[in-house]
Structure formats: C-alpha cells, structure tokens
Amino acid sequence: MSRNVFLDLGFAEDEATERALRVEIALRVELLIRDRRLTQKEAARLFGVPQPTISKIVNGKLANLSLGFLIRMLVRAGLPFSIRRGIHAEDIEVAIGDRG
Q1: Taking each helix axis from N to C terminus, what angle separates 40-47 and 51-58, rounded to the nearest 10 degrees?
Q2: Going by fewer Cβ within 10 Å, which terminus of the chain is more open, N or C?
Q3: Secondary structure letter of residue 77 according to DSSP
Q4: Using CA atoms, how far apart are residues 88 and 27, in angstroms rounded to an integer?
C-alpha cells in the first residue's frame, strides 16, 4: 500500500501523481477557506471563479477541474504556493501560503 491511493487503484504513475496533486490542492484550498471563515461567495471572489466551482471543491467533486485550473486559481488569489514531488509518485507535498 502506498501513500498515493491512485497508484493503489492501478493508475499509471503520471496520472496517479496528477490526480493526487489535484486532490491535495483542493484540500488545501478548502482548509484556507475554512481558516479564513469565508463564505463560498467570498471564496469565489478571492479565487476568481464562479461560486459553483467553490462548491465542487468543498464537496470533493474534482472530475472536471484540471490541475492547471486549480493552479490558476491560486495565482489569481495571489497566494504563494509550492508543489513538490519526490522520487516516487507517493512523495507529494503541496503548500499554500496565506498572506493575510
């Protein structure tokens, strides 16, 4: 059993890595929304997306949200972030800095 559930489900390493990154970014965005006590409408303004997109993220419905789209949300919000993948696909870290 690895730390990347997508590898365990049989996805190829590249796809498993991308899926894990999408989930990790979405989780970090959700935590930021919760920590700042933002409504979905306020979060939508911060990230420059429609409110239903925030609802999808908060409810874990990421199927139609690409990794690139999620990264662009972070850029639009002006949030510093880092993404790191180690030697193995399960070695993934995402950090989103909160400037305020």
Answers
A1: 110
A2: C
A3: T
A4: 21
